[in-house]
Amino acid sequence: MKKSMIAGAILALGLAAPAVAAPVQWKAADGGNDHWYEVVWNVGQSIAWTSANAAATSSTLNGMSGYLATVTSAAEQLFLNAVNAAFTASSPFHGGTYTTAWLGATDRDSEGNWVWQNGESFTYSNWYAEGWGWPVEQPNGWIFQNYLAGWETGDKWGDRANNGGLQKYVVEYDAPPVSNVPVPASLPLAAAGFGIFGLIARRRRKAA
Questions:
Q1: Contact 35, 154 (CB under 8 A)
Q2: Residue 135, preceding bond cis, omega within 30 degrees?
Q3: Which residues fall within 8 angstroms of residue 55, CB to CB, at 6 or more apart?
Q4: Which residues are CB-contacts of 188 (< 8 A; sequence separation ≥ 6)?
Q5: Calpha distance 20→2 (Å, rounded)
Q6: Looking at the whole model, is its pTM more than 0.70?
Q7: Angstrom distance (rounded) from CA 83 to CA 150
């Protein structure tokens, strides 16, 4: 009896913890920006946009702070489609090709004026816009629907209320400066060794 209760408690704790996909880099060599992207699934429970935003900005990778992902080009959208689809396919209880996830834009301060929270220009958009019906053409400006939901329909965007029922969000991390890249411990030792050898060689030449 006790064993089954303990096992149940462990299972419950496991399900309560967010499921995080391994960060994926959009490499510059592949036409990307060298940023990293991380899909987070709040297993079985919805998460508000403001909570997802706070969680994203408190996340770090390679010494860089995260933020809710921005999508600033069609190429970036295609890359994130692949990231989302791969995570969706590998996660239990997910159906379809994509699963709707929070992205980092809002028009809460000025209706209709969408801005990325990290300050990037909102020049690219991918709203669902196929006329009336369901889902309604986006963004529809309904009251309180001030937060960007990616993959609302296919890979198209929609606007939702803060507590819009989403369970996923995407975190983006900038590429760290070159100076932040760790230097293998052997390199300083090797450099010091080469310096010593050079000094010894110079002294031998002078003695000769």
A1: no
A2: yes
A3: 40, 47, 169, 171
A4: none
A5: 31
A6: yes
A7: 13
Q: Which CATH superfamily is domain 17-207 in?
A: Mannose-Binding Protein A, subunit A (3.10.100.10)
DSSP state of 180: G
Reduce the DSSP state of residue 173 to 3 states and report it.
strand
Helix (H) or strand (E) holding 116, with range, is strand 115-116
Is the bond leading into 139 cis (omega within 30 degrees of zero)? yes
Compute the distance between CA of residue 130 and CA of residue 145 in angstroms, rounded to an integer. Answer: 19
Distance CA 5, CA 12 (A): 10
Q: Report the candidate in 140, 99, 139, 144 with the shortest Cα–Cα distance to residue 122.
A: 139
Q: Which amino acid is at 102?
A: W
pLDDT (tens place) for every residue of the chain, 208 residues total: 433 443 343 334 344 578 888 999 999 999 999 999 999 998 888 999 999 999 999 999 999 999 999 999 999 999 999 999 988 887 665 655 678 999 999 999 998 899 999 999 999 999 987 554 555 555 666 667 899 999 988 899 999 999 989 999 999 999 998 765 554 444 343 334 434 334 334 444 444 5
How many Cβ atoms from other residues are within 10 Å of residue 94's Cβ?
15
